[in-house]
Specification:
With 329 residues, the protein is α/β, with parallel strands linked by helices. The protein is built from ten helices and 15 strands. It has two domains: 146 residues, Medium-chain alcohol dehydrogenases, catalytic domain (Quinone Oxidoreductase, Chain A, domain 1, Alpha-Beta Complex); 141 residues, Rossmann fold (3-Layer(aba) Sandwich), CATH 3.40.50. The longest helix is centred in the middle third of the chain and has 23 residues. The radius of gyration is 20 Å and the shape is globular.
């Protein structure tokens, strides 16, 4: 009989009411895939919070083991790129949404979805970064591709105290950028300054409907919020600037005009971490290993255990979590 392990299982009844519980699974109950991984660390992202609370339709197959990313060790593989003992990372690919995810002792996935754990990073380090940090790095790389160098001027990060925002600030400041933070949590000012922020803009200043064009205040931005916040960030981006958009904490809508694009040549760059091609993932993780200050990563990270995941998921949706959470399995 195969050994059982703990898992969080999201189920739905005939009335489509969702429930979440800790269950026991056997390896034979995992979904199809050519690599089985012993999960050693995972994290709680905003998306995981939405999945567990049911606040948004993240889960599209029931029952489901949530958790969109993990790091661990390969135990069984029929994929040519991986063998037992290999250290791997998974981010995205619908894991935790349509394919059993990270919140279990083991995961069986497609080998094509995995990337190697970079040398010098532990499973815990990788999940301190997690999808949030990997997404932040994709945003920074997009700004660089659009010519937004530190010499061009300051860069704004919205949702600054959250996971993506915190890691984006740490990376940008290490690379020499002047970083402006937008947050609705004034109590986090010291935390943000320790990460490398030089100026803080109150969330309210950007969250209300604004003008089609405002005063040019920054050369670029990383936006995790969407809605009016992104519209205002675009309206205040300087000539030829670029904004990387990767989140919707403030809403799916984008009430803007074409003015920033046709009068200032501003670029809006969409960032998708879920289906990003492997080459981009490998580059992002390589850059994470070299361009993210490990001390700052530790300062923005809190460790919890498996049994604390459900509570942390509720807290992250309610905006009570700052920085990153690592789940040590």
């Amino acid at each position: 009989m195969s050994e059982k392990f703990k898992a969080i299982l999201i189920t739905r009844d005939e009335e489509k009411r969702q429930s979440v519980a800790i269950a026991e699974l056997a390896e034979t109950e995992l979904m199809e895939g050519d690599v089985t991984v012993r999960v050693e660390a995972t994290t709680v992202n905003y998306k995981d919070g939405l999945a567990i609370t049911g606040k948004a339709p993240v889960v599209r197959r029931f029952p489901m083991v949530p958790g969109v990313d993990f790091a661990g060790t390969v135990t069984v593989s029929s994929h040519p790129d991986w063998k037992a003992g290999d250290k791997v990372i998974l981010n995205g690919w619908g894991v935790g949404e349509v394919h059993y995810g990270a919140y279990a002792g083991k995961a069986r996935v497609k080998g094509d979805w995995l990337v190697p754990l970079p040398a010098g990073l532990s499973a815990r380090d990788a999940m301190a970064v997690g999808t949030a940090g990997y997404t932040a790095m994709l945003c920074v790389m997009a700004l660089e591709r659009h010519g937004i160098s530190p010499a061009r001027g300051p860069v704004i990060v919205t949702g600054a105290a959250g996971g993506v925002g915190s890691v984006a600030i740490a990376i940008l400041s290490r690379l020499g950028y002047t970083v402006i933070a937008s947050t609705g949590r004034p109590a986090e000012a010291d935390y943000l300054k320790d990460l490398g922020v030089t100026e803080i803009v109150a969330r309210e200043e950007l969250a209300a409907p604004g003008k089609p064009l405002g005063k040019e205040r920054w050369a670029g931005g990383v936006d995790t919020v969407g809605s009016h916040t992104l519209a205002n960030v675009l309206s205040m981006t300087s000539y030829g600037g670029a904004v990387a958009a990767c989140g919707l904490a403030g809403g799916m809508d984008l009430p803007t005009t074409v003015a920033p694009f046709i009068l200032r040549g501003v670029s809006l760059v969409g960032i998708d971490s879920v289906m990003a091609p492997k080459e981009l993932r490998l580059e992002a993780w390589r850059r994470v290993a070299t361009d993210l200050d490990r001390g700052k990563l530790e300062a923005l990270t809190r460790a919890i255990g498996f049994d604390d995941i459900i509570e942390a998921a509720k807290d992250i949706v309610e905006g009570k979590i700052r920085g990153r959470i690592v789940v040590e399995m």
